[in-house]
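new request in #modeling-help
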Amino acid sequence: MTGSPKFRQAPRPVLLDPTAEGGPATRTRRSRPATLDGLTVGLLDISKPRGDVFLDRVESRFAERGWRVLRFAKPTFAKPAPLDLRQEIAVHCDVVIEALAD
Amino acid sequence: MGAGEAGGSSGLPDGLVAVVKRDCPTCVTVVPVLAELAALGCSVYTQDDPDFPFEGAIDDTGLEVSWALGVETVPTLLRLEGGKESGRVAGWHRGRWEALAGASGLGGGLPDQRPGCGSLTADPEIAALLSLRHRSGTLSARRVELGPLEDELEAMWARGWTDGLPVVPPTEARVLAMLDGTARRPDEVVAVVPPNLVPVTVEKVAINAVMAGCRPEYLPVVLALVEASCTDAFNLHGVLATTFSVGPVAIVNGPAAKAVGINSGVNLLGQGCRANSTIGRALQLVVRNVGGGRPGEVDRATFGNPAKTGLCFAEDEEGSPWEPLAEARGAPAGASAVTVFAGGGVRMVTDQKARTPEALVETFARHVGPGDALLVVSPDHGRLFRDAGWSRSDLASALEALAPRPAAMCNDLLIAYAGGRAGLFSAVMEGWLAGPSGSVPVTVEVRQ
């Protein structure tokens, strides 16, 4: 049916793209390590109530196993982590555990 | 568009130029003058009949030259020097034509002056086509060509461009018409939109405003709203990402609110007014389409609320016992401004018995929690404060005394005056996390 000249001549609507016309940069997640032996684990508190309770417990359990732990905290859970904090974690840690919610 | 822009690149000759059409009695009247001027080297362009006014006239039935010169009336006589316009006369006027042509005794026997007719470029349908032809190059958005049998609304839905309601197809013609609503350049960056932190141009905002159903005159308000919402203080990323159910609520003050018809009266938080229904929606479509903020992705609201489709209203400044909200928040008196507040659903505050401000404030205090809030005081309730001479800050202080707000949180209580003339109700919208670590209301002036 669409081979009919009548249909071929139908106007093709042209719209303007309302989007950003590009996706945000995506990075593949680093593969999960087989063991934490010899690695540095960052514990990120997003400043939600009781996040520290969870992370304190994780830290003590990790310490029992001899894993190295560094603690970090976002100034507020309501905003993305500041760039400096993200870079500090990336420089010093091999893996990170984030306490997401209350 | 003036000749200054068109000259040179359009290949127009230097010197005297006349633009005419046969379907214009004044042009017909001045044919002898045009012949005299042609003999002096004047280029005569004809808009409708290549044989008019005489053989040798230049065919401008495609209206390219008329458009480039910005001719609004025929006959028009112009002088171009080095691509720049140095003089122009619309209609026949012997003295002015003689001065421009450097000639004397033109059109002996003709009346001294005659008004002209409208240029064909000013015919509404032709003007729209010409505008599209000449200005589509100023738009830089990617063109999305649909299939000839593809349904536009379904195609936009399938591409994920809509909020679940139908959107208006953003054609070049509609977007150009939308851009006529502002003097700002299409490529000007308005803001950086969370969550993907994408710089958004006036053009992209205009495209989404078309889709939302806005009229061109709303665009300056939409631009101010986008600007206000994308500030660090308002924290749109957090407002979007939170599991709490807030969304941007726009309160518009100043002459712009009235000029574009934003409802401040009956059912202002409901349906039925195009400006109220579409201005906030345009922001939300910008967040969705440009910023990449979509429900189920970065938008994690547990419930959301119906107002997240878009919520915008105006303050009733004429009826208000107080100065405009924007002015109270630091905008210049009389300025048009948009205030954006991260608000949850609308809750009614009913009090049909209070006869004093003190009694009414007790009711308000039971509904305004310890966090941020937007309290919209209705005319029937506002009357009590006006009669008692209470200022906005008197009301805020009385509320504070009854429902103390934690000082450390730097809370914002916004008090606006709006609503239908009858009804002993006010309305309150709960805010989200208060203060700089959450979302702070932001007021931005509307620029035309």
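bot summary: Chain B touches chain A through 41 residues (CB under 8 Å).
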